[in-house]
Amino acid sequence: MEGGAIAQFLPLILIFAIMYFLLIRPQQKKMKEHRAMVASLRRGDEIITQGGLIGKVSKVKEDGELEVEIATGVKVRVVQSTVAQVKSRTEPVAS
């Protein structure tokens, strides 16, 4: 009887393992990469937000916000986590 109970749960365990490696694990990796990208944002980086705004970071604030210049003299506040992509990075100033 005990072997039959294990055989009944084996397909469920197999399905969960497949779901983990095909869906959950890649999504966690993608989220980790996004967090690292957002944490490395600097003044002067050109970014694209999830809303489609393209601009240059003019200030990185401590409370999870960015000040982004989307046109000459036009600055908007953007939540850091809504940055979808970094188009171009600025090189750090050599000391």
From TrEMBL:
Membrane topology classification: Single-pass membrane protein
Subunit structure: Part of the SecDF-YidC-YajC translocase complex. The SecDF-YidC-YajC translocase forms a supercomplex with SecYEG, called the holo-translocon (HTL).
Entry annotated with the keyword Cytoplasm: no
Keyword check for Transport: yes
InterPro entries (alphabetical): Preprotein_translocase_YajC (IPR003849)
GO biological process, one term: protein transport
Keywords for the protein's UniProt record, in alphabetical order: Cell membrane, Membrane, Protein transport, Translocation, Transmembrane, Transmembrane helix, Transport
Main location (coarse class): membrane
A Gene Ontology cellular-component term: plasma membrane
Family per similarity comment: Belongs to the YajC family.
Function: The SecYEG-SecDF-YajC-YidC holo-translocon (HTL) protein secretase/insertase is a supercomplex required for protein secretion, insertion of proteins into membranes, and assembly of membrane protein complexes. While the SecYEG complex is essential for assembly of a number of proteins and complexes, the SecDF-YajC-YidC subcomplex facilitates these functions.
Protein name per Swiss-Prot or TrEMBL: Sec translocon accessory complex subunit YajC
Intracellular or extracellular location(s): Cell membrane
Transmembrane segments: 6-24
PANTHER family: SEC TRANSLOCON ACCESSORY COMPLEX SUBUNIT YAJC
